[in-house]
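Example record used in the benchmark description.
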Amino acid sequence: MTQDTLEGLFVSELKDLYSAENQLTKALPKMAKAARCEELQQGFVDHLQKTQQHIERLKEIFKRLDKEPGGKKCKAMEGLIKEGAEVIEENKKESATLDAGLICAAQKVEHYEISGYGSVKAWAGLLGLTSEAALLNKTLEEEIETDSNLTKLATGHINKEALSGSNGSGDNGEETNGGDKHSTNRIKRTKNRMR
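Model output (structure tokens):
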């Protein structure tokens, strides 16, 4: 199917997202392993599970359209994942800067996916594919939520720790944010939101 019709463009972009999500399933475990902040690690693990659900939704849409999901490689995601790998290689494991860089890399991925899912959801609506549009909207909402959670982690304490050069861990190896009761409560609330 060519891309000179909206339906052709729709299918092509679905294939691009399918490739992107599959590439991401290989990158997220590496990002989780590299992260030093427990909340960020768990966020990557949780998003891996959601990414697998996104792939299943895309497969369902392809099945409904009687199309094959493969045949296209998302070069943009490939590049974004390479950038994330560079962040890991260039930063020390115990550095808060590593976590800030991982969040930046992850948000680039999320913004790419948000724009892609937003477009295909709109096109599905125009093409009269209402159940497919609903599936795509569910994924879009999850991508937006992930981006929001990453922002909360970054602005909550990770960026500040990176600025101060802190590794964010106390003598016992547990993450702290200055050791006060309010910081500890904020960390607990953030963990609950990430789940």
